[in-house]
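Bug #77: duplicate submission created two jobs. Keeping one. Sequence:
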Amino acid sequence: MKVATVQGVRIEFYPNDHPPPHFHAVTHEHRAVINIMTGTVDRGELPRAKRRVILDFVTETSNSVARFVVCDAIGPQATEDQMKKKLPR
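Kept job's structure:
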């Protein structure tokens, strides 16, 4: 599911996707899997300039993105305490 487009890079999440928590960054020519917690490219590649833009996006939105992924993993009925236990510090 597409959740954002950042300077021509489409950000996608897939429900019930495999760990670790990650998203897919897609351009016309490149595709990469980005670890949400570390911001590293786990698979694939992006041009340096696009990678920098995406890492800025991850830094700015990491708490919101992490909450989205954790909620997806443990369900919408998750309590605030459950969320805090799952989110990185």
